[in-house]
Each structure stands twice: as C-alpha cells, then as structure tokens.
Amino acid sequence: MNEKVEQFLAKTKKWPDEMKLLRNICNDCGLTEDFKWMHPCYTYNGNNVVIIHGFKDYCALLFHKGVLLGDSEKLLVQQTENVQAARQLRFTNLSQIQELEATIKAYVFEAIEVEKAGLKIAMKKTAEFEMPEEFQNALDKNSALKAAFESLTPGRQRGYLLFFSKAKQAKTREARIEKCTADILAGKGLND
After folding, report:
1. Which residues have C-beta within 8 Å of that of residue 152, sequence separation ≥ 6?
2. CA 23, CA 6: separation in Å to the nearest integer?
3. Number of neighbouring beta carbons within 10 Å of residue 12
4. Are 29 and 73 found together in one domain?
5. Are the C-beta atoms of residues 50 and 111 closer than 8 Å to each other?
6. CATH code of the domain covering residue 103
C-alpha cells in the first residue's frame, strides 16, 4: 500500500468508494501501487499498466496500452480522437464495478500480459498530423517562426497542430496561429 495513494483516497470527495474498490482490484492482480500524475497508478516491473482517474461524470480505470487489449466485452473507451494508446473502463456507480469485477480483473491481467510480452505501440509521428494550410503559409512567410516551431519538442508541435486543425473556419485558424506565434517564438508549448 502506497502512503500517497492512502492520502489521495482519504481526501477525495468524488468517487471515493468506487476508487477504493478499483484499488483493491488492481492490488489483487499483483500490480505495484504507485502515485503518479496525482493519481493512483499501478505498474508491472516498473511499467505503467493502469491508473485510476476521477472525472465529473464518471471514474475510470485507464489502461496505458489499452489499444493493444482485445476488449472482448467492448467496454474500453477512447478518451478523445487524438489519444493513441490509452483506453478507459468507465464507471458511474459502485455496483457497476462490483458486477464487473471479474471482467475488470481479466482486462488487468491481459494488460499485464501485454507488458510481459514487451509489446509496443506504433505512435503516429508528428509529420503524420495534419498541417493546416494557414499555418504552413505562416511558416513559409516567417523563417524565425519556422525555425522556432521545428525546435519545439514533437509533443509541443503536435499540440499546436491539433489546436490549429480543430478550428473549422480559416479565419479561426488564422486567429489561433496569430495568438500562438509569440509563444512558439519563445519556445513554449500550447499550455506552458
């Protein structure tokens, strides 16, 4: 039992009983309990397997390599379209977890097998993300902006590309690019 997890569960106001049961399930599966990203995290041989999250409308058991699981019961959820690897089992009440306990354990054991096998996920490269025409034009016109963008980490580059691409109208994309130009020139990521 990890002391930080104990403290987290003692303070949590949303989903305390659900999280405690998910914790017991993870510990029953022989995982090592840790506390990462301010949440209970369970590892196998130092590799992240699952993390317990609480959200407004549900609590979840997030599988770090969930995309590699068979999902025989069709329960796994992709958080957003841009999440490449992780998948969640979502719960809205304690009885759901109680009823699915054997299934949850089966998913956890499958995730452990993925780690034992050393399976990796082929992540999409930054170059494979859509480059909005408006941003490409801005890079072509401003060599300093282009150099600054290219010097950002791949994750920061993807963050900007996704942010710019989400805008439906060219005018909105241009406004977003203009707003973010100073941060890109300063070497900052979208949320820095």
Report:
1. 160, 184, 187, 189
2. 10
3. 18
4. yes
5. yes
6. 3.90.1150.200
Both structure tokens of 179:
């707003």
Domain annotation covers residue 142:
yes
* Other C-beta atoms lying within 10 Å of the C-beta of residue 164: 21
CA dist 112 and 64 (Å) reads 11
- Higher per-residue pLDDT: 125 or 87: 87
The count of C-alpha atoms lying within 13 angstroms of the C-alpha of 171, restricted to the half-sphere facing its C-beta, is 0
Domain hosting 44: range is 3-116
Distance in angstroms (rounded) separating the CA atoms of residues 66 and 85:
6
Tell me the pLDDT tens digit for each residue of 70-116: 999 999 999 877 788 999 999 999 999 999 999 999 999 999 999 99
pLDDT for residue 76 = 95
